């Protein structure tokens, strides 16, 4: 099986409908009027105090800019949407870019500023706390976002210091108020006095005394996540010393990977549209940069953006389980299908095997996303039904019906921080416990829904041991009708021939992918199989043999 199949036609991809309006200049000030006289007139530096004028601005108040570039304004508005409205970073930024009509270099600058600031937030806050004479939490959140954007330009981007500061002060003046602008100017002056390594050395604990705390600041992760990721490396057979590389990889901007919908496009068409060959998955292509939404295969729904690690998880069930399923192979199930990327891969592969696919999704708005993801495949003949429902109940409602089941369960997302950097600041250790209960219920339901000889793929985008190995171990301990399979051959079924030799898949039986090893999200896969039913022993009683 490979993507060199017939082509079809589809519909435009889904669009984010969120609309975050511009924030009004409410004149609230994180500095509470510092630098203003009784008449509300603004002062700059030490002017009026008898000494030389030391402020950064050499312009008169009437000459100062009251607005900044569209790029910085868009990055700020997107950041406020994430922090104020709990918006998803990967959904709100494209919307803001389209609304501001930013393209090319401006869009690239905005993207780096926005995502980079989100990733570096913990480290930036630790540095900003050293530059303010009161707790950073006491500063208005809108002002904190302005400061983070300015500090990121000063410490992490190749923006000239005077431009980073003056543009950020102008942003503060236009979005938060003149008083906040004066405060921002003073704080960024202090930030600009030292480079990033010097600030990290001052803000982070000594590594020899507190390694986890040091790494948390240096690589901008919550402390509990650093500890959990270090434990995950060890539990999956890797060396804890890889933690630096792992954290650094989670801060790197990921490349854009495309997935070819089975039977609807091929590598030649993607190459003609500007894509390059994929690295791992037989259905992957790599987009060199920018938004691929204008490419015809993507615009028509015959290709989509999807990490190659996610592709390999779906292909392990859709391709790799061909030799593992025992018995009829007619009905497939996707237990937690939103937003639909893996569902679409399975739908295309099920079509080619004369199987049908039932996709279950709990959240109504994600049901719509799944339907859009599979629309072109349904038009091409895929027998795929999407239902809104609770995956934990499917096993009881349809026991023993399915030959292949994907349980891509909700998780903390600790393996996908490259793409959803805001997750690291929203999650807490308590989420691991609450999600663990749901993950066990979903896996148990998936096992009940599988028929004898059926194969179940348990998938998470988190390497946390409590969400991966412990869930599988706990569920297996409670059942005597399930066996765990070696997932490595199934994953290899989805690999490009040139990637077979150099792709490490560990010691098995489960597979854990890593950003710093595979260049993918940290996806976890365990393959399980319902044991075939044991035939009833033949009745050899005398009554039966001699009626």
TrEMBL record:
GO biological process, one term: methylation
Comp. bias intervals (Basic and acidic residues): 1-45, 56-66
Stretch list, region Disordered: 1-72
Signal sequence residues: none
Binding site for S-adenosyl-L-methionine: 336-342, 361, 390, 408
Domain of life: Bacteria
Protein name per the record: rRNA small subunit methyltransferase B
Gene3D superfamilies (UniProt xref): NusB-like (1.10.940.10), Vaccinia Virus protein VP39 (3.40.50.150)
Pfam families per UniProt: Methyltr_RsmB-F, NusB
Domain SAM-dependent MTase RsmB/NOP-type span(s) in chain numbering: 229-531
Record key words, sorted: Methyltransferase, RNA-binding, S-adenosyl-L-methionine, Transferase
Family label: Belongs to the class I-like SAM-binding methyltransferase superfamily. RsmB/NOP family.
PANTHER family cross-referenced by the UniProt entry: NOP2 YEAST -RELATED NOL1/NOP2/FMU SUN DOMAIN-CONTAINING (PTHR22807), RIBOSOMAL RNA SMALL SUBUNIT METHYLTRANSFERASE B-RELATED (PTHR22807:SF53)
Residues forming the catalytic site: 461
An example Gene Ontology molecular-function term: methyltransferase activity
